[in-house]
Amino acid sequence: MKTTEAGDRKPLALRPPWRKGEVMAGSDLGYKKVFVSLDGTEQQDKVLERAIMVAANNGSELYIGHVIDSTVLETAGTYPADLIPGMDKAFRDSIASLVEQAERNPDIPKVDVQVKTGRIRETLKDDMLDVIKPDLVLCGARGLSSIKYALLGSISTFLLRNTDCDILVVK
Q1: Which of 37, 93, 100, 111 has the most beta carbons within 10 angstroms of its beta carbon?
Q2: DSSP for residue 127
Q3: What is the DSSP code (8-state) at residue 26?
Q4: What pTM value is reported for the model?
Q5: Which pairing describes strands 136-140 and 166-170: parallel, antiparallel, or unpaired?
Q6: C-beta pairs of 8-15 under 8 Å, 24+ apart in sequence
Q7: Residue 49 has what pLDDT?
Q8: Per-residue pLDDT of the chain (171 residues; tens, 9 = 90+)
Q9: Strand spans (E) along the chain
């Protein structure tokens, strides 16, 4: 820490290893494919808005993913497949206005909404992320209780440990 004459402590400013205005070769960090994982909670609009902003700023394709949790449906003993279309429609309706906004944005070349049914972690990784191969994944920070977190973990933690791309957790 650097100390000023008045005794205030200020952090030193770090400078990049190149001069202002120069672009270092290989320094392009632009994301070409942005994936946002939505969970149907009230926070999802904030997460999707951030994903739209990131995709537009990078000229990226935007992939919006949601997994209908089959473990909840399986606990009933039978798999009520007739519920799935209604859940799919309800999710798509909940994000429709933001999807339209993204589709109208000239800086986002592609918008793709994917809704799949399965176990959240496996379906998200195997059927979405491993297929799309995004450069960046955005997700929300769900407020799990400490007991649920100890038993289940979180999707953001799972993504950090199991993907090869950058992860942005939106709070």
Answers
A1: 37
A2: I
A3: T
A4: 0.78
A5: parallel
A6: none
A7: 97
A8: 444 455 555 444 444 444 444 444 433 458 999 999 998 888 899 999 999 999 999 999 999 999 998 887 677 666 667 788 999 999 999 999 999 999 999 999 999 999 999 998 999 999 999 999 999 999 988 655 455 454 445 888 888 889 999 999 898
A9: 2-3, 9-10, 33-38, 61-69, 111-118, 136-140, 166-170
pLDDT of residue 15: 40
Tell me what pLDDT residue 143 has.
54
* Alpha carbon distance 100, 86 (integer Å): 21
The residue type found at 110 is K
Cα 156–chain centre separation = 9
Query: Are 155 and 120 contacting, i.e. CB atoms less than 8 angstroms apart?
Result: yes
Q: Is 141 in a helix, a strand, or coil? A: coil
Q: What DSSP state is assigned to residue 82?
A: G
CB 122 within 8 A of CB 72: no
Q: By the 8 A CB rule, do 49 and 108 touch?
A: no
> Which phi and psi angles does 65 have, rounded to 5°?
-120, 145
Both tokens of residue 106?
């000239």
Q: Which residue has the tokens 């993913």?
A: 65
Q: What is the CA radius of gyration of the chain?
A: 20
3-state helix, strand, coil in the chain (%, to 5): 40, 20, 35
